[in-house]
Amino acid sequence: MDWMKETNEQLRRGAFLMVNGNPMTIGWGQFGVIWNKQTFSVYVRQSRYTHSLLEHASTFTVSVPKAGTMKDDLAFCGTRSGRDVDKISALHASLLPAAFGGQDGFSGCRYHIECRILFRTELDEHLLEDDSLLSRYYADGDPHTMYVGEILGVREENA
Ligand SMILES: Cc1cc2nc3c(=O)[nH]c(=O)nc-3n(C[C@H](O)[C@H](O)[C@H](O)COP(=O)(O)O)c2cc1C
């Protein structure tokens, strides 16, 4: 399916993880089937404001820009925290209301993947079997929490 292929490619440049109207740029994520459900999983470090929002959330949405677009928005949402700034207002952006019971998306993107959280767990970095990844990604701690989301629906916006 096009949206899976395009999302996989776009993740290298970034997509927006949306929780309570706060966009956070993500580069990690994947599709798959588990518990016989089509899922999308995301990985959020403990230090992120988004992590604190997810503690009280049962859904998330991944808004995926069209290739080559929204570079400044991705950079802003990947360096600034929702703790300090309302990113959507600062970017003069707007939210796209959820259509499948997930979170509102970042308007102007190509796809909005609405998910219901099925499972969450903190990744124990010491279980990594490649030491180079441990030193590269966790020298300062700050582990990732993995959230497995059941895909509720995918909305297309900008063709
Ligand atoms: C291209 C890119 C990809 C990123 N991917 C992730 C990611 O997958 N997980 C993560 O926890 N942080 C990731 N970040 C860092 C967060 O986007 C960044 O810390 C952000 O300011 C956190 O926002 P928040 O405090 O509003 O949650 C990425 C940043 C960039 C620029």
Taking the alpha carbons of the first and last residues, their distance comes to 14 Å
**Overall number of strands:** 9
Q: Output the CATH homologous superfamily.
A: Electron Transport, Fmn-binding Protein, Chain A
Taken as a percent bin, the fraction of beta residues is 35-45%
Structure description:
With 159 residues, this protein is α+β, with helices and mostly antiparallel strands. It has a single domain, classed as Electron Transport, Fmn-binding Protein, Chain A (Pnp Oxidase, Chain A). The chain has five helices and nine strands. The strands form two sheets. Strands 2-1-5-8-9-4-3 form a seven-stranded antiparallel sheet. It has a two-stranded antiparallel ribbon with strand order 6-7. β6 and β7 form a beta hairpin. The longest helix has 10 residues. The radius of gyration is 15 Å and the shape is globular. 31% of the residues are buried. The model has no long low-confidence stretch (mean pLDDT 97). Flavin mononucleotide binds next to β2, β4 and α2.
Question: Strands, helices and their partners?
Answer:
Blueprint lengths: L1 H10 L3 E5 L2 E5 L3 E5 L2 E9 L3 H6 L4 E6 L6 H7 L9 H4 L4 E2 L8 E2 L4 E12 L8 H8 L5 E13 L3
Antiparallel strand pairs: 1-2, 1-5, 3-4, 4-9, 5-8, 6-7, 8-9
The structure holds flavin mononucleotide.
